[in-house]
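for the writeup, i need someone to sanity check this before i put it in the appendix. the sequnce is what the collaborator sent (i think, or maybe the updated version? ugh). structure was predicted straight from it, no edits. if anything looks off just tell me and ill rerun, i have time this weekend
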Amino acid sequence: MGEDILHNWQKKSEEHQKSYKQFLHRADKNKVLKALPELHDEAFSRIDCLQCANCCRNYSPRFKTPDIKRIAKFLKMKEGEFIHRYLYIDPEGDYVLKSKPCPFLGSDNYCSIYEARPSDCQRFPYTDEDVILKRQNLTLKNSSFCPAVYFVLEKLIATSK
């Protein structure tokens, strides 16, 4: 029947940024939150992060204190050594990676610290939680490089009409 929603998604996401912004601004919070679990599951039944890894290639999660402690222990490093080697403090005051792509991303798109990865990585792309509405600028940015965010926004808009 219709074309695959994910076909040419990056171009379509770029073209739809204004409508995403308008939708997120006026969205019925309860209706969106009720729809998210099913849309999140549907997105990830169609999208394989290991084929993409745009998030790991181009952006850094925040490394909070519990993340730093857990990852340093996992890597058998002192926390200070871990911070010195991999992190810096960004303008918002968060620890983030010094380099892109993520130094823990393998050539096969697997994460070498997956079991201990930062909570931002565990939660990304936030398509199953209220962050999608609470942090609208983040959602818009994420929709430009994550096909799952694009997919969920497109489906939310389609079902709200």
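The mean pLDDT is 95. The chain is about 55% helix and 5% strand.
thx in advance!!
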